[in-house]
Structure formats: C-alpha cells, structure tokens
C-alpha cells in the first residue's frame, strides 16, 4: 500500500499542531495551578503588604509573571513548597523567593520565608522588612536561613 507524499505532509502538520496545542495547554494549566495555590498567593500577599518592597519595585502596578518551570529552584511536594516568582514594577523587577510548609493538622500552607531579590542586587526580607532597602546582604544566605518565624494568612 502506497501513501502519497501530500498525505504524509498533512499527517505531519496535523500531528505537529496537535502536539504543540497539547503542550501549550499543559503549560497554561500548570501556570494556573501554581498561581492559584495557597503558597503562591501567600507570598504575593506578603509582597503587596510590604511598602518598602513595593516602593523599591515602583509598584503599584505590580506585575506577577509566570514562574519558570525549568528552574530547579522551584520545588513543590505534599508538605513543602519553594518557588521563585518573577515580579516587576515601574522602576525595576526581581524575584519573589518564597518557602512554605503545610501544617499537617490544619492542612493549610504557612509562609516560612519570603524574600524579594531585586535586579540591582538588593534583598528585602518581607517577613521582617527593614525601614529602607537592604544593601550588601548575600541573597542566597538570607534565603537559606530557617530561623524566621512561620506566618500564615487565612
């Protein structure tokens, strides 16, 4: 049985379009899942509640972008979530790095850490914000601290 080249080309185009549409749909649904999660929402609320961070970004308006799915920093399992959310304002942008734990009793997420890392290198700890922006702090060292008190919003 012979199949013409035009039929093979049509099949190839159809398969490519169908695969691309499926991948695009999966990407969109994953981003919606992250954006709708409690650990994501808590981190963004903490950023919006910090006037120093909002002023540093030049917000409002605050633009919260999709997370990078290939970034190894982003890890989520049943009990812990660690995400890096790209954010921008009028002045500058940066990453909102958040770490959350799920309380096994209440099944609610508690924000353990929230740090805003600006493009210029400044770092603002959102759970204990300074009166002015932080200069000269090693962002990775600040984020890795685990002595900050856990906070939750209901």
UniProtKB/TrEMBL annotation:
Domain of life: Eukaryota
GO biological process, alphabetically ordered: mitochondrial respiratory chain complex I assembly; mitochondrial respiratory chain complex IV assembly
Keywords from the UniProt entry: Membrane, Transmembrane, Transmembrane helix
Compositionally biased spans, kind Polar residues: 143-154
Region (Disordered): 135-154
Gene Ontology terms: cellular component: mitochondrial inner membrane
Entry-linked InterPro entries: Coa1
PANTHER family: CYTOCHROME C OXIDASE ASSEMBLY FACTOR 1 HOMOLOG
Name of this protein: Cytochrome C oxidase assembly factor 1
Residues spanning the membrane: 12-30
């Amino acid at each position: 049985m012979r199949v013409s080249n035009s039929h093979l080309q049509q099949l190839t185009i159809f398969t490519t379009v169908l695969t691309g549409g499926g991948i695009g749909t999966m990407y969109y649904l994953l981003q919606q899942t992250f954006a709708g999660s409690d650990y994501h929402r808590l981190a963004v609320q903490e950023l919006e509640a910090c006037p120093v961070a909002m002023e540093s970004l030049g917000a409002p308006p605050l633009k919260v972008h999709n997370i990078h799915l290939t970034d190894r920093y982003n890890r989520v399992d049943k009990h812990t979530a660690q995400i890096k959310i790209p954010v921008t304002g009028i002045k500058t942008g940066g990453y909102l790095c958040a770490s959350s734990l799920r309380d096994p009793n209440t099944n609610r997420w508690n924000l353990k850490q929230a740090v805003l890392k600006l493009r210029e290198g400044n770092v603002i700890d959102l759970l204990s914000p300074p009166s002015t922006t932080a200069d000269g702090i090693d962002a990775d060292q600040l984020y890795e601290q685990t002595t900050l008190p856990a906070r939750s919003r209901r």
